[in-house]
Specification:
The protein has helices at about 5-20, 25-30, 50-65, 155-170, 190-195, 200-205, 215-230, 275-305, 325-335, 335-345, 355-365, 410-435, 440-455, 460, 465-470; strands spanning about 30-40, 45, 70-80, 85-95, 105-115, 120-130, 170-180, 185-190, 235-245, 250-260, 265-275, 310-315, 320-325, 370-380, 385-400, 400-410. With about 475 residues, it is of the alpha+beta class. The longest helix has 30 residues, at about 275-305.
């Protein structure tokens, strides 16, 4: 049968291996009792209020410092305290590699009391760790406060200096208040007083000793609500509000606080105050800029919808991808937006009439800047329509292709009228050419003059050269 000494030394080895080497929360909990007394190297590192309390503390530590340490257990000595209990003491080294390739080592002493429970398993009922020197200050615990980020070590003096440097680098300071009506002032540091423009006595007089009175009246209820709600779930909160300065103005601050208990046993909040006025104003300017841009986009969208012509944004890719179009554009072709997307894949080239698709494509691609192109398009149901596209090449890009802004005007009636009128023009030209002698009568010459006045501008270019000579 395994002795209590063997069981106790084994559970101690497994406990420190899980806690320091593996940083395994579940494995640690299997090595300790539910009512474990866990006392670290600082006066505030203490867990003796039940399983949930020490579990929360341990989880927070492992989340902040999840990287494992090197571990060497030494000088273990076990003293049985009867058949079901044992006292174990010893020391160990914990190591972590430094960025320069070196190693930092910390020497720690420990004691533990182990008990055999009803299920036959031996677990740790109490554990205490301490340093063989007085370098550690109150509230500091191993290993995180002595082995810094990346394994770099720091003395308590160095940590205090680093904190002071961090504090001095932030616009703001520290303040504390008791968790009572109005948040009576617990403390306020000189840096925050200087930032707000007060002396300590002036601040106390101005606020009547209540932190709540330093908050803008319009923000107080909201701050109280956020803090109260946060404390229902955790001991920390974060809130932004306006804080009063001595000159009567208000500055926006970010308040990050934590609940604590004072030496007198009163519940209190300690918080760091960071001035965020500049970032808040920048955020507000950005918000207003976004709102203005949204309004302009809405106006532009409205304009595109109410213009008489069809409007579309086309990518200058092989299929002229349709990026945007107003309602009038789809009405021209007789398709709905969904039909163009599902049947044509938003490829505008499929709307070009098959008889003119090559010529139209070549005409568009050969033009730069602003240009106009007339071409024939296919409509839903097998019909066709003549359009004039007034377009310009924008500075926008879509998948590496230039974007065209296009206005489409229905010129079908004009083109069809011209198509019917041209044969008549050629017929008149033929008569003028071969029967010019009939124009010698004054009445007929006047009729011919009226006809010339009504002819389109391109008619002289279509008439035979000989006729143009005689008509002058």
């Amino acid at each position: 049968m395994e002795s209590i000494v063997s069981k106790a030394t084994d559970v101690v080895r497994r406990f420190y291996d899980a806690y320091l080497r593996k940083r395994d929360l579940y494995a640690v909990t299997r090595c300790v009792t539910d009512d474990v007394r866990w006392i670290g190297t600082g006066a505030f590192e203490r867990a003796g209020e039940g399983f949930r309390h020490y579990l929360d503390i341990l989880r927070e530590e492992l989340e902040n410092d999840p990287e494992g340490y090197g571990l060497t257990l030494r000088n273990l000595r076990a003293v049985p305290l009867g058949k079901s209990a044992c006292y174990v003491e010893g020391d160990f080294w914990i190591d972590r590699c430094l960025p320069d390739g070196g190693t930092h080592r910390l020497d720690v002493r420990f004691t533990a009391v182990c008990v055999v429970q009803a299920d036959g398993e031996c677990r740790i009922r109490a554990v205490h760790a301490s340093l063989p020197c007085g370098a550690q200050g109150e509230g500091e615990y191993f290993p995180a406060m002595l082995l810094g980020e990346g394994g770099q070590s720091a003395s308590s003096g160095a940590w205090r200096s680093a904190f002071e440097l961090l504090q001095a680098s932030l616009p703001g300071g520290l303040v504390g208040g008791y968790i009572e009506d109005g948040f009576p002032l617990y403390f306020i540091n000189d840096q925050l007083l200087e930032h707000l423009g007060y002396t300590y006595d002036e601040f106390v007089k101005e606020t009547r000793g209540m932190v709540d009175n330093a908050i803008h009246p319009d923000d107080r209820a909201g701050v109280a609500e956020i803090v109260t709600e946060a404390f229902r779930h955790t001991d920390r909160y974060e809130v932004t509000y306006r804080m009063r300065k001595k000159d009567g103005s208000y500055t926006w601050v970010l308040d990050r606080g934590r609940r604590t208990v004072t030496d007198e046993g009163r519940d209190a909040i300690v918080c760091i105050i960071i001035d965020v006025t500049e970032s808040r104003e920048l955020h507000e300017r950005l918000r207003q800029g976004v709102e203005t841009l949204k309004a302009k986009n809405t106006e532009l969208e409205t304009f595109y919808q109410i213009v008489f012509s069809g409007f579309a944004k086309l990518a200058d890719d092989p299929g002229y991808s349709l990026l945007y179009a107003n309602d009038q554009f789809f009405q021209i072709f007789g398709y709905s937006r969904e039909e163009v997307r599902e049947l044509l894949g938003n490829q505008a080239m499929l709307l070009f009439h098959p008889d003119s698709v090559r010529a139209t494509d070549a005409a568009i691609r050969s033009r730069g800047g602003r240009f106009s192109v007339k071409f024939r398009c296919a409509t839903k149901g097998g019909g066709s329509v003549w359009l004039r596209m007034d377009a310009c090449r924008s500075g926008e890009s879509y998948k590496g292709h230039n974007v065209l802004y296009c206005f489409f005007t229905d010129i079908d009636e004009e083109e069809r009228r011209n198509g019917a009128y041209l044969p008549a023009i050629f017929h008149v030209a033929h008569l003028y050419e071969h029967r010019g002698r009939h124009l010698r009568h004054p009445r007929r010459r006047r009729a011919a003059a009226r006809l010339r006045e009504r002819q389109p501008a391109f008619l002289p270019r279509l008439l035979p050269r000989g006729f143009r000579g005689r008509s002058r």
